[in-house]
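Project standup — Tuesday

K.O.: blocked on the structure for the chain from last sprint. Re-posting the sequence here as requested.
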Amino acid sequence: MPTVIRFQKQRYLASGVNLSELFDQIPEPIAYFDADNRLSACNLSFRNHFPVVIETEFLKRASNGPVSSRPRSARDRGRPALAGPGTTNLPAPQSEFEPQVRKTPDGGTLLTFHDLSALRRMEEDYLRQIDDLKAELAAAGQARRDAVMIARARKDFLTSTSHELRTPLNAILGFSEMLAREMFGPLPNERYRQYARIIHDSGTHVLSLVNDLLDLSKLDAGKLELCVEPVEILKIIIACVRCVEAQSIRDHIGIVVHVDDGVDRIYGDDRRLHQMLLNLLSNALKFTPVGGEIAIDVFRRGPDIAISVSDTGIGIVAEDIAKVLEPFGQVESALSHKHQGTGLGLPLTKELAELHGGSLTMESNVDVGTTVTITLPPDPSAGPCVSHH
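H.V.: unblocked you, prediction finished:
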């Protein structure tokens, strides 16, 4: 059992060291051991944090690194601490201090202590934050992996389903057209011919949706190939106008075309250019009321060539533009039910324009009309076929 030394105020006064009030106001514990390693002086903070000191061990502990203290409770401060088998005081929370040991000219030792509690709390807080960030990072990584798996599954489903739909759709379109034309003899009732045309129109709509889904799937996978070559712009425009001519005549919608001088060729994939312009024309017809007008303009915008399709249709508010440029993004209106739509035409056209290295912009005003512009860069050095991955 080591010898327990209990210090009292009289001991400090008897040591000959003047413990002033200023010395006791220093918040950090300070102690002085003489040349014989006896505790000769200390301040109030030291007495409160180290009420019991074993002289022969304390300096050794202080020289080996941080030391822990068990301060007296508030009610016990100011009176001597007790130690030994009969001690009944409940232990107070420990504090940890980093001691600094300095030798004095008289051979003594001066100890000053830096409280590590705030640093420990900060370290623990940082460790908790790091653990939280690691957990969030792990969750984000798992969410990303789940999203990739879902996207792949969806892509595989769309691709396989779309290919499987094409075969029966082609049969539906072919046989319905044969029935509508009465190729093997007259039908006994006019309604049969009407039903055959409805079946053919509906099948055409579904096939268009399937083709758009396949194109979007290829674009997402980076596997859609472009065959870039010089193409006559006017030929593309005429072909697309002829495709929508019957509908424009039926709805009494005029189509005007203006091509600037010197702009006769564009570099791109002929099939995809037709697809983009036809999508824009079909969309303009869908939202233009009877008696309206559609304008196709081709002009230069800096070094690029721009093709714009403008209509005098119902238009949309600016906040809805981003929505209609997303797949399946549609804005409800009275005219949107006039023709079937998939919500894929504009997004697909935008993707195809960007695949060409260009862009698609849209401007619209309610009850005034909409203008969609495709801008494509010149590419005179392009080879006959370019694969984009």
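K.O.: great, moving the ticket to review. The chain has ten helices and 14 strands. The radius of gyration is 43 Å.
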